[in-house]
Amino acid sequence: MKITDARVVVTCPGRNFVTLKITTDDGLTGVGDATLNGRELAVASYLTEHVIPVLIGRDAARIEDTWQYLYKGAYWRRGPVTMTAIAAVDTALWDIKGKAAGLPVYQLLGGRSRDGATVYGHANADTVDEVLAEVARYTGLGYRAVRVQTGVPGLDATYGVGKDKLFYEPADAALPTETVWSTPHYLSHVPEVFRRVREEFGPHLQLLHDVHHRLTPIEAARLGASLEPYALTWLEDPVPAELQEGFRLIRQHTTTPLAVGEVFNSIWDCKQLIQEQLIDYVRATVVHAGGISHLRRIFDLAALHHVRSGSHGATDLSPVCMAAALHLDVSIPNFGLQEYMRHTPETDAVFPHDYRFADGMLHPGERPGLGVDIDEELAAQYPYRPAQLPVSRLQDGTVHSW
Ligand code: EZ4
Ligand code: CO
């Protein structure tokens, strides 16, 4: 089963997506997501210029060998661009293997460990009163877990609080927009938000909150402690995670569970976090962490240390990534939660897929392979549009982490 063709499709059905499609000599095709928000064309070029030429003629069945060849053979290991490109190849080859076997990919990964992947939705609003209505919208749709984000009084705009309901898009302009951040304003507001949500919805709804890397460890420790009465399922990205031992400080001060990893691209980004049990959920995802093969390696390490999965699933991860994530989610022993932001109808039409939402869970479907494809004719109607993520500054003008 030799690879005879591989091509990169860039399309913008409301937002940009990069997709790798691989074809074999027996006519099978496989797809892999290669979208890196705000840096899409770097991955497209990496694939087209450097990866596709070495794929042609290779045995499509050799998934692990191809992964090692691309990772070790390039000499330049890791990094988001490289690992997203490798992820696309790996995902497409798993899709092909499933189709060749006539089995959905989760069966190749050991079969089901659960009925479906429990997902969380996103309640976003400027005010607390409005966000309560948003949480109710999700519980009404059957969600068992909701991430709650609100505007911060005194600040004009806050990253992570979308303008649309149900749909959310942070990459909002060809050149980065800028927002202003104040930690004191934020820290005094968030506990009140969760007090109100718990009061309204009771103790059983799973609640989450995303800090978007905006605090220092001691500030995050204070936030975690102040949220303990509201029993969050997780507090996400409390601090940037390059300094893995920085999480020790947070851990010493709070029992609020911690989730991190949407920007991780390899097991080396979370090795210490996992081995020291400094986090509770690892949010690495198929498209940015080297594909199904490497993400499973991360989740296996996590399982040894009582850390569960909580894969990133924002709208900049295409339906191809979501399908791949779901096959992993239902098969691994230590699944936690899956993030789910709905894609627009335009995106869903470009990427016809078998997965579906029911009873607060996503189900990967039973089609051989991943159960997702790209409609290339439709994709061609949506040309690439440059879009970048915003930059955050403190009130004195200092560039800040969001
Ligand atoms: O900022 O997907 O938890 N989800 C998030 C997302 C990310 C974007 C970055 O591309 O934090 O909104
Ligand atoms: Co996040």
Structural write-up:
- With 402 residues, this protein is α/β, with parallel strands linked by helices.
- 36% of the residues lie in helices and 17% in strands.
- The protein is built from 13 helices and 16 strands.
- The strands form three sheets. Strands 4, 5, 7, 8, 9, 10, 11, 12, 13 and 14 form a ten-stranded mixed sheet that branches. Strands 1-2-3 form a three-stranded antiparallel sheet.
- Strand 9, helix 9 and strand 10 form a beta-alpha-beta unit.
- Helix 2 runs antiparallel to helix 3, helix 3 packs across helix 10 and helix 6 runs parallel beside helix 7.
- The chain is globular, with a radius of gyration of 20 Å.
- The termini are far apart.
- The relative contact order is 0.17.
- The structure holds (2S,3R,4R)-2,3,4,5-tetrahydroxy-N-oxo-pentanamide and cobalt (II) ion.
Secondary-structure blueprint:
Elements: E1 3-11, E2 17-24, E3 29-33, H1 40-55, H2 63-73, H3 80-101, H4 105-108, E4 117-125, H5 128-140, E5 145-150, E6 178-181, H6 183-201, E7 206-210, H7 217-227, E8 234-236, H8 246-253, E9 258-260, H9 271-275, E10 281-282, H10 291-304, E11 308-309, H11 319-331, E12 338-339, H12 345-350, E13 356-358, E14 361-363, H13 376-379, E15 391-394, E16 399-400
Parallel strand pairs: 4-5, 4-12, 5-7, 6-15, 7-8, 8-9, 9-10, 10-11
Antiparallel strand pairs: 1-2, 2-3, 4-14, 13-14, 15-16
Helix pairs in contact: 1-3, 2-3, 3-10, 5-6, 6-7, 7-8
The structure holds (2S,3R,4R)-2,3,4,5-tetrahydroxy-N-oxo-pentanamide (EZ4) and cobalt (II) ion.
